[in-house]
Write a structure and sequence with these properties.
Two copies of one chain form a homodimer. Chain A is of the alpha+beta class. Chain A has ten helices and 15 strands. In chain A, α4 packs across α5 and α5 runs antiparallel to α10. β8 of chain A pairs antiparallel with β2 of chain B, so a sheet runs across the interface.
């Protein structure tokens, strides 16, 4: 295999100015990530300098066969940690040839909300960002990595943030992902081993407005590429194993300029109150299958209940002790599932707390 | 997999100022180590420049779910031998949001003892001999031992080499270099009497740093065993029968003991330790009664005996120390699963501060 690796790792800068751009988009399920690559004559750092492209939407459930072209609009550039050199990853969203966003394009509306003057003035800053939990599965049996096939590991307790061959499964993937994201220019702020063995978490943030969604989707793409290399399967299912095992969420930490300023704690409480009045609408948009996860047990609040509290991990919304003490800061919406669309969740939180009036 | 290794080994210094800091703490059992990582905007060498952090104490048995935040205070920095570059390991201790040490935080009281002027003036040095056993992953039986059976009796294994005598040396050697890289004062290693058992020594360290360095050395070891696919055990008597247990002999000296006339100071210190034998034993590790039997190079748990060059004693004084009239002594009582913050500070407290009533 050494000759193959030499080729994969060829540094093209020595032989040509050409670069490779991997265009990435979200497919028809709203959760599947797709990508393909093309060559450019030289380095590009600004998305507006990249050409639009297109793909076969009939192969991703996004267009009929007789009118299959879906147009890709480049929106954000990141360095490619796999090809390195001047090669890039490009996050795109999808349009009809007539210029309309296709139904699964959630970025378009999110971008509209974030560019609304009242929202933009508040600099919606996902200060500690989005906590993406995920589970690694063994490839051919779809059973979590490290779990005995046909059985279960010892109960939860020893695994959270632990080390050891009997407690931490798949760290090489997690660590490779951390460095790959930093290389790419994704604002990855941390990682930790989770309560269920084989489950991990990374955090993306701080990010402003629409870029939170762009960065999380790119981070998910990089993770899927790395699990592919490692021969394990990535799952964003919010409750991968039934029973006394934690689910997987995407807790979303949020603050606005007003919340971060003096007196911000009152703004936070008002915002939480508004979120409480739109609980059903948010829950409907917070990820498929969340009802299997939000049971009121395993550090969640029941899906039909809206509850907030300081340092309370069994709440829908948790406010940190430091925020309470300083009278300003941020809060954590613990309701989103691991398979949520960050464009939807981030823009909806901004919309409800800044634009919506009861 | 070559590409995965490339990513793990990426030298980020070429692309960004950002560094990764792995915050490490002791969990609810008092022996489980936990850690998580965060990104910082640039290199940090002083713990006082690191931000406090927090974690979910309800997942480690250290806080209730409805009030789950436990605060991490950074106390010591080491270089990260896994991520390399400017990335760091940070040893922390744990507090409530109000700033009180939580019950499992043994460092806080140890630090108080070490900063007592009488103790600080004595410059307490510690060298800790950490013994440990490597176990096969799915059966929890020592590495190199046949499944369903036993290896030949003890005798050939201590400090030996050979595929039939030394099991797991790659873990031990990787650990040695990783600790030196990290900045831990690891002073040596050796294969132990029971096959599959090894020892490393940390020291000499002054005061509180003995505890910090031993905990980080344990963390580095657990990360390495994880990579190697074997399980680390700090149990003091992993196998019943004619097999040695695992201890954490603690070598100790003060400025007075190291100076001329020190041997007299040593004898006084040992006498004080003898009067508090029960209190020390209670704090020297869970399950030690299975190990301190009076056999297998231990003294019985209810007996306090000291002697020169005597490995069957509770406290052993080296022949060198006896001959030069000054030096150090070895407390052989602590179990491999002891908390070094507790043991080191208790020895200092009893020998320097405590007065018999």
């Amino acid at each position: 295999m050494s000759l193959l690796t030499d080729l994969v790792n060829l540094n093209l800068n020595n032989t040509t100015d050409k670069i490779i751009a991997e265009y990435i988009w979200i497919g028809g399920s709203g959760m599947d990530i797709r990508s393909k690559a093309r060559t450019f004559t030289g380095p590009v750092t600004d998305p507006s300098k990249l050409p639009k492209w297109n793909y076969d939407g009939s192969s991703t459930g996004q267009a009929p066969g007789e009118d299959s072209e879906v147009i890709l609009y480049p929106q954000a550039i990141f360095k490619d940690p796999f090809r390195r050199g001047n090669n890039i990853l490009v996050m795109c969203d999808c349009y009809t040839p007539a210029g309309e966003p296709i139904p699964t394009n959630k970025r378009f509306n999110a971008a509209k909300i974030f560019s609304h003057p009242a929202v933009a003035a508040e600099v919606p800053w996902y200060m500690y960002g989005i906590e993406q939990e995920y589970t690694l599965l063994q490839k051919d049996v779809k059973w979590p990595l490290g779990w005995p096939v046909g059985g279960f590991p010892g109960p939860q307790g020893p695994y959270y943030c632990a080390a050891g061959a009997d407690k931490a499964f798949g760290r090489d993937i997690v660590d490779a992902h951390y460095k790959a994201c930093l290389y790419a220019g994704v604002n990855i702020s941390g990682i930790n081993g989770e309560v269920m063995p084989g489950q991990w978490e990374f955090q993306v943030g701080p990010a402003v407005g629409i870029s939170a969604g762009d960065e999380l989707w790119i981070a998910r793409y990089i993770l899927e590429r790395i699990t592919e290399i490692a021969g394990v399967v990535l799952s964003f299912d919010p409750k991968p194993i039934q029973g006394d095992w934690n689910g997987a969420g995407a807790h979303t930490n949020y603050s606005t300029k007003s919340m971060r300023s003096d007196g911000g704690y009152e703004v936070i409480k008002k915002a939480i109150e508004k979120l409480g009045k739109r609980h059903k609408e948010h829950i409907a948009a917070y990820g498929e299958g969340n009802e299997r996860r939000l049971t009121g047990r395993h550090e969640t609040a029941d899906i039909n209940t809206f509850l907030w509290g300081v340092a309370n991990r069994g709440a829908s919304i948790r406010v940190g002790r430091e925020t309470e003490r300083n009278g300003k800061g941020y809060f954590e919406d613990r309701r989103p599932a691991s398979n949520m669309d960050p464009y939807v969740v981030t823009s909806m939180i901004a919309e409800t707390t800044i634009l919506w009036e009861p």
